[in-house]
Write a structure and sequence with these properties.
heterodimer; A: 315 residues; mainly alpha; MetI-like fold; two-stranded antiparallel sheet; 15 helices; 1% strand; globular; B: 307 residues
Chain lengths: 315, 307
């Protein structure tokens, strides 16, 4: 018994000693520790609101405990399934098409020898990444709105029937995917372009001497050497497959409930439940469901990757 | 057989190499040009619309190039005066937030890369975990508004954007490239940790500071989300992008932005005022961006490697 106590105080001492020894370094990262505590860890107890029937007067921990009934409602109404389906399908399309297009553009850019053309086109393609998502919403509205939109201007000048996308939910999935690609491909291709630049020039020269043509070079040298980069970026993306791109959807669709069946994702639903309906319990139930599923997916993906190729694992 | 192969190498394949290169190059130039044009067109339409009179827009719709030229929209926006206050607010938030965030991120990135720091792994995990699991919007909103009392406060915009796990990891990756011997040599000379960081490490981190500073600044300049959560109509002056959001989506906000209550909504050249606002809110970024683009590119390539 005495031994245990002695051991414990020893441990304590050494911990305090450790703290004392590295007190300056600890102080240097104290602001960051405080920041993440305040804005990422402090909200965690509030998850409890998903299990109560929240009312303002009693607060999160005083409101009536209702168990899992907030979740039951979401599952029984089919809402949770619809939101998850939309979020995952959009993300899968973003990931697949986004990476294909980025690789394609990076390979083409690499073949272009005119330096000025390369520089200007890269700058222009990268530009959409830098604008706010509010402006993205405005750009889309400018192109597509019924009365003054650019597309309808062209259609009417050609004497064709006008298009009314803002009342037709079916047309939005391809539009949103196009807008996503428009905004992010320049950014995504940078990584691939850098990876291509990193390929040993001697290998490419050697392939030329051996008589490989340009297609063979791309097929047998460039694409295989991009594989690690592609795999890492896909894994990163896969880990976030249930996290939606809120700004994109909210600024394009906004509160147009006519379009919700095909465009409502988890984030937009949670935002409306919180900010418009003040239904914190439902919002939090959906949010918790999303966090838990997301966490399980990341950990699983990472576990599998670690088994196959430890170098690629995230943590 | 060997001779045949050699013949093939000398005759057919060489031509094939050139043809294949020509095809790929042609596809490259055509596709990249086409794609680049697609990237610019929406911007041209906005600029063009901001200079077009309301009657022309109503009649012909928005155009790629202005059919007539008027400064009506800009006059209205600039006379209204609220955009100046939004500008000043946004600049203050951007400068203050970037400086504070950058200092904290730089210190943290350095400390977490110090091999002799005993809490290195624990704190790294503490920060990384926040990107794996979050409480979600509703608990965050309740905490910010009820516990921290930040409803209608600019701090609700300033504070949450100070840093992110990704930026800390990015900084760590930059610090990794600095040899550990530099810290060691500072220690031998008897310098304290803070002194080593400020006078030996910081000067070597200039490219990292530029890159991460620009990511932070871009985040503040484009901020609209925290504003939409926490700044209600009680706040008169809001950050630029959220002001733009309100002008486009709420008629009242449009009216207030031009000249207050003395103008009736029907007199406002709605579309050109909206687009003039969009041009003014985005202009600084588009103008500054070609000069700072390379820092972003280095950030993306360094950040693609895991922490």
């Amino acid at each position: 018994m005495e031994q245990v106590v002695v051991k414990k105080t020893k441990n304590n001492q050494s911990f305090l000693q450790k703290v004392y020894r590295s007190r300056v370094l600890l102080l240097m990262c104290a602001p960051a520790i405080l920041f993440f505590f305040m804005f990422s860890y402090m909200p965690l107890p509030g998850i409890w609101v998903a299990f109560v029937k929240y009312n303002y007067r009693d607060g999160i921990f005083g409101s009536k405990f209702v168990g899992l009934s907030n979740f039951e409602f979401l599952i029984n109404s089919g809402k949770l399934f619809e939101l998850t389906k939309n979020t995952i399908l959009y993300n899968l399309t973003f990931i697949i098409l986004g990476n294909l297009l980025a690789v394609f553009i990076a390979i083409l850019l690499n073949e272009i020898r005119n330096k000025k053309f390369k520089k200007v086109s890269q700058t222009v393609m990268f530009l959409p990444y830098f604008i706010s998502q509010v402006l993205v919403g405005i750009l889309v509205f400018n192109m597509l709105n019924y009365d003054t939109g650019f597309v309808n201007g062209i259609l009417s000048s050609m004497g064709m029937e006008l298009w009314e996308p803002y009342s037709d939910p079916k047309v939005w999935p391809p539009i949103i995917v196009l807008v996503y690609l428009w905004q992010n491909t320049g950014y995504n291709s940078v990584v691939y372009f850098a990876a291509i630049m990193g390929i040993d020039a001697e290998i490419i020269e050697a392939s030329k001497v051996d008589g490989a043509n340009c297609f063979q070079k791309i097929r047998h040298i460039i694409i295989p050497s991009l594989k690690p980069t592609i795999v890492i970026l896909l894994l990163f993306a896969l880990g976030g497959i249930v996290k939606g791109n809120f700004g994109l959807f909210y600024n394009i669709i906004g509160t147009n409930s006519l379009l919700f069946p095909t465009t409502d994702i988890i984030e937009t639903y949670v935002y409306r439940a919180t900010m418009a309906d003040f239904n914190f319990s439902t919002a939090s139930a959906v949010g918790l469901y999303q966090s838990v599923i997301g966490f399980i997916i990341v950990v699983t993906v990472n576990y599998i990757v670690k088994k196959i190729e430890p170098d690629y694992s995230l943590f | 057989m060997a001779k045949q192969y050699q013949d093939l190498m000398e005759s057919g394949v060489k031509v094939k190499l050139e043809t294949s290169e020509k095809i790929v190059k042609a596809v490259g130039y055509i596709f990249v040009t086409f794609y680049a044009i697609c990237c610019v067109i929406p911007f041209l339409i906005i600029v063009s619309t901001s200079f077009t009179s309301e009657t022309v827009i109503r009649e012909l719709g928005v155009q790629l190039f202005p059919k007539d030229f008027t400064l009506e929209g800009y006059n209205m926006v600039l006379k209204g005066g609220t955009i100046f206050q939004s500008y000043i607010l946004t600049i203050v938030l951007t400068v203050v937030g970037t400086l504070i965030g950058l200092s904290i991120i730089a210190m943290t990135g350095y400390v977490l890369q110090r091999k002799d720091f005993e809490f290195r792994n624990a704190i790294s995990f503490y920060i990384y975990f926040t990107s794996l699991f979050s409480a979600g919007l509703a608990p965050y909103y309740l905490l910010m508004t009820q516990t921290y009392n930040l409803k209608d406060s600019y701090f609700a915009v300033l504070l949450p954007l100070l840093m992110s796990p990704w930026l800390v990891i990015l900084m760590k990756n930059f610090v990794k490239a600095i040899p550990h011997e530099i810290t060691e040599s500072g220690k031998i000379d008897g310098a304290g940790d803070m002194r080593i960081f400020v006078s030996l490490i910081l000067p070597m981190l200039k490219p990292a500071l530029a890159t991460i500073g620009l990511f932070l600044a871009l985040g503040y300049w484009n901020e609209w989300y925290q504003s939409s959560l926490f700044l209600s109509s009680k706040v008169d002056v809001k950050p630029l992008q959220y002001t733009l959001y309100e002008i486009v989506n709420k008629t009242d906000a449009l009216k207030n932005s031009v000249a207050g209550q003395f103008v009736s909504v029907t007199d406002i050249p709605t579309e050109s005022v909206k687009m003039a606002n969009a041009v003014l809110a985005t202009g600084p970024i588009v103008l500054a961006y070609p000069f700072v683009q390379r820092y972003f590119i280095s950030g993306i390539t360094v950040g693609a490697v895991k922490g």
